[in-house]
Amino acid sequence: MPTIHLTTFIAQSADVVFDLARHVGLQRDALSSYRQQAVAGTRFGLLESGETITWRAHHFFSDRLIRFKVLDMIPGDRLILEQMMGPFHSFREERYVKSCENGSILIDLVHYEWKQGRLGRVADRLYLGSYLEKILNLHIDAIRKSAESKRWQTYLMK
What own/partner pairs with CB < 8 Å and gap ≥ 24 does 109-117 have? Predict the structure, then answer.
């Protein structure tokens, strides 16, 4: 099963980074070029443990639906999402936030397997892995930019 591992330093507290990482609106805004919208489940605000979210987004020349469930969450530490419905045979995202000097470390681990078997493995090597990494980096970059500026307050202030 392919795995993507991304590690990012963010000059902000772990609590702020964690909440940005689970904010539906920030992810929607980060992936607006893919016309991503939350269409069912938690559609606004912060994802909580046990909740589901269904995203509609334009990937691979068509609109796709993918539903995730928050399997595990420890505030300020980790968020684990797993695909319940979608184009993958399996898809699990583990997001960890660790405090460090002058900020936080955001660690993303994504384990996925395409439904198409051998053809899917070839597609992964040729394109899918780098495509997923690009999407993850867009979201992570939005988290980092928001966290390191005052923009985070527009997402998290009540």
Answer: 109/3, 109/4, 109/5, 110/3, 110/4, 110/136, 111/1, 111/2, 111/3, 112/1, 112/2, 112/3, 112/4, 112/88, 113/1, 113/2, 113/88, 113/89, 114/87, 114/88, 114/89, 115/87, 115/88, 115/89
Q: What is the pLDDT of residues 40-76, one digit of tens each?
A: 999 999 999 999 999 999 987 889 999 999 999 999 9
Give 87-114 pLDDT, tens digit per residue. 888 999 999 999 999 999 999 999 998 8
Task: State the pLDDT at residue 1.
Answer: 82
Fold of the domain spanning 3-156:
Alpha-D-Glucose-1,6-Bisphosphate; Chain A, domain 4 (3.30.530)
- Amino acid identity at 142: A
9-18 b/e with 16+ CB inside 10 Å = b? ebebbbebbb
- Tokens 């936030």 map to which residue? 97
Domain ranges of the chain: 3-156
